[in-house]
Amino acid sequence: MAVWHRSPSATTANASPLVSSAIYAALGLQAVTLGSGDGDSFNYDPNTGRMTQYQFQVNGFGDCW
Predict the structure, then answer these.
(1) Does residue 3 surpass a pLDDT of 90?
(2) If you write DSSP's letter for every residue of 6-20 in order, what string do you get?
(3) Which of 30, 34, 43, 59 has the fewest CB atoms within 10 Å, i.e. the most exposed one?
(4) What share of the chain is helix, strand, coil (3-state, %, to 5)?
(5) Domain residues of the chain, as ranges?
(6) How far is CA 5 from CA 25, 39, 50, 54, in A?
């Protein structure tokens, strides 16, 4: 499976970027990291393309669905 990594570079003076990185794969977005360090990750069923798991991290705490 091919994976693409994109790091947006647009920022406002003296501010963190809203999104510091995003990782895409053939089935869609796999992970996103915000400038604050918070982030989300997504897992997909390779046969159906449906999301099978969602994980998030906020202020050092995380959970998954």
Answers:
(1) no
(2) E------TTS--SEE
(3) 59
(4) 0, 55, 45
(5) 3-8+17-64
(6) 9, 15, 21, 19
Contacts of 7 (CB under 8 A, 6+ apart): 20, 21, 22
pTM above threshold 0.70 = no
- Of 25 and 15, which is predicted with more confidence? 25
4 contacts 12 by C-beta, under 8 angstroms: no
> Taking 70 as the threshold, does the pLDDT of residue 7 lie above it?
no
Over range 14-31, report the average pLDDT.
Answer: 87
38: exposed, middle or buried (C-beta count within 10 Å: 0-12, 13-18, 19+)? middle
